[in-house]
Fold this protein.
Amino acid sequence: MDAGKSRNGGAGWGARVIDEIVAGLAGKPGALMLVLHAVNERVGFIPPEAVPAIARALNLSRAEVHGVISFYRDFRTEPPGRKIIRVCRAESCQAMGAVALAAHIRARLGIDFGQTSGNGDFTLEPVYCLGNCACSPAIVVGEDLHGRVTPERFDEILSAMSSPRQPR
Amino acid sequence: MTALVYVPRDSSAVSLGADAVAGAIASEAASRKLDVKIVRNGSRGMFSHEPMVEVTVGAERIAYGPVGAGDVASLFDSNFLDGREHPLRLGIAGEIPWLKSQTRLTFARAGVTDPASLHDFIAHGGYRGLRRAIELGPDRVVAEVTKSGLRGRGGAGFSTGIKWKTALDAPARPKYVVCNADEGDSGTFSDRMIMEGDPFVLIEGMTIAALAVGAAQGYIYLRSEYPHARRALSEAIATACSNGYLGANILGTGKSFELEIRLGAGAYVCGEETAMLESLEGRRGMVRFKPPFPAQEGLFGKPTVINNVVSFATVPIIIDRGAQFFHDYGAGSSRGTMPFQLAGNAKSPGLIEAPMGVRLGEIVYDYGGGTASGAKLRAVQVGGPLGAYFTESMLDVALDFESLAARGGILGHGGIVVFDDTVDMAQMARYAMEFCAIESCGKCTPCRIGSVRGAEVIDEIINLRRPRENLEVLRDLCDTMKFGSLCPLGGLTPLPVLSALKYFPGDFGLTPAEVDFIGTDLAISTSGAVTTHAIAGR
């Protein structure tokens, strides 16, 4: 999920990458989900240009592949920012101030859910439950889960991230 | 002598800084030249004390919490390795009343053992169930599970034994065992805690199921939001394989069982079992018509046992201790214990395993200590995003399938979310519709269109645009969703909506008299809901 791998906006993928991924997984039952996860993880998103190759390799129509990509929230069709910030919007987090937290985060980053900041630093995504409900409200920054996040705590997380001491 | 220190690797504990605490303990011990071994255990589920550090002193484990990385030096200064006094000292972990008063059957090892250690698992009673299951043979295992009264812990509450019997009797081959680990309900985390804190018990339960029904391949459909669980499970599966507990010739039986983790991709509806099967087969997570039920025609059209994580994880103790042992706990036709999960605005949230039939108020007040904010408690949602809201005056309701149904609610997966008096229940009702619209698979019209229209109509009511007429529309819409939806997503969304409307009409700008009609409707919705749910569970 680390968007850092795709920081050049998909330069990391080529037909060979897709072929490689598909070759390793095509024999598995129900392989399409596995392939899409692998591409999404390796490239950072699923380039629309990769769809015909995936379809061909799995003997599916392009429409079938597109249909699966568009169904699941995890599968992106555009390169994300360097860090993906996911904010839980579900009931338990709402009970602990998630609505205000989300408003703060949107204002702070200057982007809405589903958007990537102009400098390519952040992509903001909604998530519906992280299973961290006993420590609401919860967010995920990159791969790190955070609990009991207040607007102030979010600002700390953000500044710790941009400080040079933290390589990631 | 090596001092044994436990720091949870549970993702919630990590979200509060447990990794930094473990790191600080390691470096502090190194600089003081002390011999310390850090075990990354699961969580005991007492999240007001997480990160909770435990130290082995003699036969006891002394707990300290909540520990921040900044507290570590002072813990060493106070000789916490000997269990000495410190402001964060909580006493003997197992003696903390919040834990001691629980009935931990399924969660007996969670937070106690090292989840990565097969040795620990076996030393604490693990794999006794599987060994006994091998002695008993398929028919008697299925009979035992049936007799225990275990009903699905994922939400539908269908008899696990009857499901297994159907798969056992199905003539088609091959058969599959699938674990539904797509724990999407807000306010729930028991599946996650099992997978992170005691993954071998899930593997053991699935293996017992596989031997019982004659399946050689199993899948765990795990939500992608749980990367920690994925790591813990992957480790445990590999360890089980290399020790003869998975793979070919399990414990010399000549039977084989392979287990593979498959990831979801952020679709709530894939927690519905037939949508999950579609997803496992590599398609959009669209709900299937039932019948045929998965136990007859499931994954790839073959007989498939599908159970939730907690259901599978409860089977080993049932087989080990006998059906009667489990059956002795509980109320009515809800047997055994249930891991309730207290979340939201609760002062002491966490995992509370108690016999079915415990009162909601005991969970919310005796364990939860009321609201985290200290403000007045206003509403409690039981059973996830599709569960009903209750008022404070209704906290006497017993938490079991029947008692909740009688009060217009559902047990679901056992999630309990507390709200204080800052909550706007009209917004929560609107959110229920919005969530359904976002997550609908789109196969049936009542859910796909009804939820979008539902959010619009609630907006109209809140904004006082022809509220009376729009209330009529909302009522119709809820009826249509309840009775016309293919699965519980559309079928149960009216439950939070109508309960919010019924108990908190003022939040919608309405009077109690104006929502009077719901009195009977919610009752109708209950039987309707239970029906849809029971069908979903088959």
Summary: The first helix of chain B runs from residue 11 to 15. The CA atoms of residues 286 and 441 of chain B lie 5 Å apart.
